[in-house]
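For the sake of transparency, this paper describes our internal protein records without simplification. An entry from our holdings is shown next, in its original layout:
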Amino acid sequence: MELTVLVDNNTSIDKYFKGEAGLSYYIKEGDTNILFDVGYSDIFISNSQKMDVSIKDVDYLVLSHGHIDHTGGLDSLIKYYSETLKNKEDYPKMIAHPDSFERKYYKDSTSIGINISKGLLNDLFDIQETIEPVWITEKLVYLGEIDRKNDFEAQNPIGYINRIDENSKDYLFDDTALAYKSEEGLVIITGCSHSGICNIVEQAKRVTNIDKVVDIIGGLHLINPDKNKMGKTKKYIKELNLEQLHGCHCTDLLSKAELAEVSNLKQVGVGLKLEYK
């Protein structure tokens, strides 16, 4: 599997790409091409062109969840496909949790969800809405809705879903991830990890029946975490005995410093390419 970072908050040194507070990866597994999230704007397209990555050859578009920093580029993607693809049959198949398409708001009524109607998306894409795991290839799996089994992650909502009131708090049940079965063990590919990175890894182990994890790449949703959450996350990551950890996007500097104490933390930025056998 080859993974190329098209969008991240940071860019790689000496590689003059654009960055933004968003995330998008291009994944090639055998003959299957996957676009995992599309960032906040159109820069995933311009970055991909500089990298000689062909967005028009994507077979699957996978959404990690419905927040705008992972889906805001959909309108640019639709425009790009309208200019480069002749038939709807050439559009990639989309895989996402049903809640990804619901309206999402922050506490001040700001819209933070997908900014394109589900009707239009249905007109263009063959959408597989699912809470269950989906094997995209024999080695790469969409993990579906993540079981939340621990007591220190995914405890707080972020905004609201569909309406703004006490009964519509959004706990991001649509947040999910991918897992790849490499020769050495699992590679976990996350968007934001709103459901909890430890919960995600445990789900990946259950779905694949593989315990060994060699790498995690993606957002870890560690932004000013409290001591309990940070401490238990560090303990869990240490016990995984990862070969490397590529924490990025929604992982703040202090959290990266703490994780570097218990793992082989690596730098991530737009232009990074990773390969796994």
